[in-house]
Specification:
Distance between the termini: 56 Å
Number of strands: 31
Oligomer: single chain
Structural class: alpha+beta
Helix content: 25-40%
Radius of gyration: 31 Å
Largest sheet: 9 strands, antiparallel
Strand content: 15-25%
Number of helices: 31
Length: 909
């Protein structure tokens, strides 16, 4: 290709590898049609809820195997000989003159500047603070107001990321303001960020479960088939090429509540960064690329013309931003990573992350249609989807008629928006229909789950659903909606996610005919299973089959909603989109590689906070300058940390691209150093108004005797316990057990689970209860796990309610254990529920347990694995005297909730 010529839309599109059905790793051949076609798995004979337990265990077992990694090999990603730069922070240091905190005079001078720019303080308020007589001198500051601080940042702090530029784009005869950055310079800044150099991955790889390489693993983006196939096609003509996958995301957001001000940010990241870095704002894994025009073209009265103009305005703006990718995507360019290594890189647009309207806008498809496949709108509710994926060749043939009179008619006949110049048309190695990736936030939490909550509420009646939601037991991570859920409006994705964690429990014994209740439970369980499985941070070929089987189960049971008149059809694009999850995961890795939940968080920093820092007049120049200064300060902060650690140790590593996530990471118990209460009388522990443990002293006596005499007979134990006396009258107690978890993906920040154990707290004067009593339920390991047990095996586990957590007084230990035995530091009194049944309920897939009278014991806290949330067995309409605080005391039968969180779901079937 001649670098100076514009590539033809069809004939000169660079080859992209097509992965066709039946391909083995050595049979992938480059094709000229510009897309990757994935085989469809057969879904016949999908498992039912109870029959699928073995299937799920087998699927999850594949995630626990040691991965067999096949690197791409060849010359891919090799450094360019003779080209090398110094480490990025050393180059940064060369641009700053002065001491360790230059251009600031001291550490205090720097810390005040950092605080002013990163903690949301307004410039006027900061200037007012510094204007107080003596403040500047007392702190030894090198600036006296916000303006002087801004001058230091603007003129003396180097910038790694490019500055925003203001340009005008013309569309429909009008000019629109565009505030954007050079995308190539943004990619270079990402790639050359010194903080990122230790995490970058350079080449694709294939991960397998088995030595025969038939069971694939997908987690990071470089384990997907898109990168491998594109690398193979590129490597054919460009040996040593290193792909930089470009991931874009956009979502219009409101800046104000009343003035209808909005912003349209587009964010950029690269697939070379591990997903754990990309989703953390503190690691600067995303960059604001552009603020798109937000005009709604209200002056255009013809709605069809306005829609066309708005679509073309979006694509014209994006074309202006992405056009610089065209030549480097085919010819490459030299880029240095943060450690100074230079490679020939090929930035190639890979994925677009957005909600459904954004997907239709990007692909040019009609609202109501699938942006991925050719399924007609009136067949979106059918499953499995047998329609082919949309074809880039057909799309380009439509665009070839753009200058002809029948262009609008051709577009309408093909249900394609009349786009004059789609931004992706000239980009190399791009199939835009494959680049549309799943959106868990909008498709599931704000889509399918939102619909499901509405449907089941209508079937079970709002009053009954609300009554049950208000009376669920408390537990860490479970939000109790004390006024129900039916009257809530404008729920966020987080709130729908919270509701999904207990939604199935609201349907147990629903006040509808038993057969209908079973079907309703099965359909709901299927969609919840899909939601949780689709969010696994690692997938195998088998878990993707499991994922598709859960969707098949829903479609088999969905007629229950038609029977009750809730739906006439299921031609809903967001439900249809679930059929494409497996394909997308095989192409681009697990769904947490491309979640809009990350960009939703960025709206706060890059849009809302930036807007609030302006005077709300001609705001975009002020917003972009505010962001540039903030980024400079954040980079300087990283530089100072590097400089301080340069002679001490290396920066801590948290992830590498060839690291495989550990799904069954165990929780780690963490107790506070000091007890919540140092001296709780034994009478308060046994009292109904206290911890309500009437058999506490007898249980503790048996525990001490068994620890001293492990072989003691049962009758002898009971006889000696009845005469045993305890050498204390009070105990130190703990009101919370914390569990630290390295998260399911282990590379993410630590997550927390906890168990609350405390009596009610009253105000002494009027006996008003300030804090209700709470005694959480726990999962306890009674016997060690066997090597043959799967991660989700319940062998050796039992559920119990924690009544009191305590430790023995140090001076009493020598009396209770004269032989020198060292007792556990922390102990817990557990009231046991019945054992797990051999199999779960055939409809809900939940394990049933029941209260057992006067069956309790004392165990080491170390045996407690996690908290457990229980669904009450309602037995029909909810008794009015049940409350969230007393339901665990009154209700007799319960079901174990596996949807409490993702860690629980994976580890408890």
């Amino acid at each position: 290709m001649n670098p100076g010529t514009e590539p033809s839309l069809v004939s000169q599109q660079p080859h992209v590898a097509r992965v066709s059905e039946g391909d083995t790793p050595d049979q992938v051949q480059p094709q000229a049609d510009g897309c990757i076609e994935e085989p469809r798995e057969s879904l016949e004979g999908a498992d039912e809820v109870n029959g699928g337990e073995d299937h799920r265990q087998a699927a999850q077992n594949t995630l626990e195997s040691s991965a067999i990694i096949e690197p791409f090999g060849g010359l891919a990603g090799i450094p360019v000989q003779g080209e090398s730069l110094g480490p990025a922070f050393e180059q940064y240091q060369d641009q700053i003159f002065g001491g360790a905190y230059a251009p600031f005079s001291s550490r205090l001078d720097w810390e005040v500047a950092r605080w002013a720019k990163l903690r949301g303080l307004g410039s006027t308020a900061f200037s007012d603070l510094l204007s107080i007589e003596g403040v500047v001198d007392a702190l030894g500051l090198s600036f006296k107001n916000s303006k002087q601080l801004n001058d230091i940042i603007d003129k003396k702090l180097p910038s790694q990321r490019p500055a925003f530029t203001h340009t005008e784009v013309r569309c429909a005869g009008e000019s629109f303001d565009l505030f954007s950055r050079d995308i190539i310079e943004c990619v270079k800044a990402f790639y050359g960020d010194p903080e990122h150099s230790q995490y970058l991955c350079f080449t694709p790889e294939r991960c397998y479960v088995d030595a025969n390489k038939t069971e694939w693993l997908y987690h990071e983006m470089n384990t997907g088939k898109w990168w491998w196939a594109t690398q193979k096609a590129l490597e054919k003509d460009r040996p040593g090429a290193m792909i930089v996958p470009i991931i874009l995301s956009s979502d219009k957001t409101q800046l104000t509540l009343f003035r209808n001000k909005s912003a349209y940010p587009v964010y950029l990241t690269i697939g070379n960064l591990p997903k754990s870095i990309r989703r953390k704002p503190s690691h600067r894994g995303q960059i604001l690329l552009v603020y798109l025009p937000t005009s709604n073209l209200s002056h255009m009265t013809n709605k069809a013309s306005r829609r066309r103009a708005m679509s073309n305005l979006f694509h014209t703006s994006m074309s202006h931003i992405l056009k610089p990718l065209t030549l480097p995507g085919t010819e490459g360019l030299l880029m240095a990573s943060g450690d100074g290594v230079v490679q020939r890189c090929y930035p190639i647009f890979a994925a677009y992350v957005g909600d459904y309207p954004e997907q239709c806008l990007v692909t040019g498809t009609y609202n109501g249609d699938s942006p991925v496949c050719k399924c007609p709108h009136n067949q979106l509710g059918l499953y499995p989807c047998l329609h082919p994926l949309r074809d880039m060749d057909n799309t380009f043939s439509i665009l070839e008629h753009a200058d002809q009179g029948h262009f609008l008619a051709t577009c309408k006949a093909n249900r394609f928006r009349p786009l004059r110049c789609p931004f992706w048309a000239g980009l190399p190695y791009v199939d835009i229909f494959l680049s549309i990736v799943p959106d868990v936030l909008h498709q599931q939490h704000q889509g399918v789950i939102k619909h499901l909550v509405s449907w089941v509420t209508q079937i079970c009646t709002p009053a009954e659903v609300d009554a049950r939601a208000e009376r669920l037991p408390e537990n860490h991570g479970i939000r109790i909606f004390h006024k129900g859920i039916s009257s809530l409006s404008r729920l966020s994705g987080t709130e729908h996610k919270q509701i999904s964690s207990f939604l199935l429990g609201l349907l147990i014994d629903a006040p509808i005919p038993a057969s209908d209740c079973k079907r309703l439970i099965r359909s709901t369980r299927a969609l919840l299973d899909f939601s949780y499985i689709s969010q696994f941070p690692i997938h195998s070929t088998e878990t993707l089959r499991l994922l598709d089987s859960t969707l098949s189960r829903f479609h088999n049971e969905k007629s229950i909603f038609i029977k009750y008149g809730i739906r006439e059809h299921f031609n809903i694009p967001k439900i249809h989109s679930l059929a494409h999850y497996s394909r997308a995961i095989t192409l681009f890795g697990a769904t947490d590689n491309y979640s809009t939940e990350s960009t939703e968080c960025l709206h706060i920093d890059f849009a809302k906070d930036a807007y609030n820092a302006t005077n709300h007049k001609d705001e975009y120049p002020q917003m972009t300058k505010w962001l540039e200064r903030r980024e400079k300060v954040m980079l300087h902060e990283k530089y100072i940390i590097w400089r301080e650690r340069m002679h001490i140790d290396k920066l801590p590593t948290i992830a590498t691209c060839n690291w495989t996530p550990l799904m069954s990471s165990p929780l780690r118990c963490k107790m506070t150093k000091h007890p919540s209460a140092s001296h709780i009388p034994l009478s308060d522990i046994t009292s109904p108004s206290g911890y309500h443990v009437p058999f506490f002293m007898a249980s503790l006596s048996r525990f001490v005797l068994l620890l001293n005499h492990p072989e003691i007979a049962v009758l002898d134990l009971e006889l000696r316990a009845s005469h045993f006396s305890l050498p204390f009258t009070s105990l130190p107690v703990f009101h919370k057990i914390k569990f630290i978890n390295a998260d399911i993906s282990a590379s993410a920040s630590e997550t927390l689970d906890s168990i609350h154990v405390h009596p009610k707290h009253e105000v002494d004067n009027d006996k008003e209860i300030v804090v209700a009593p709470r005694f959480d339920v726990a999962l306890v390991r009674l016997s060690p796990r066997h090597e043959s047990d799967s991660p989700s095996s319940l062998n050796g586990l039992r559920v119990g309610r924690v009544r009191v957590v305590f430790s023995l007084p140090p001076d009493a230990k020598t009396i209770l254990f004269p032989s020198g035995i060292e007792p556990p530091t922390h102990l817990a009194y557990i009231e046991w529920f019945s054992k797990f049944a051999r199999s779960p309920d055939p409809n809900s897939g939940l394990y049933k347990i029941s209260h057992i009278d006067e069956h309790a014991s004392i165990i080491p806290v170390a045996q407690i694995e996690r908290s457990v949330h229980l669904f009450p067995k309602w037995g029909g309409k909810v008794p009015v005297h049940w409350t969230s605080s007393n339901v665990l005391d009154i209700c007799h039968d319960f079901y174990v909730n596996p949807f409490k969180d993702h860690h629980t779901y994976y580890n408890i079937i």
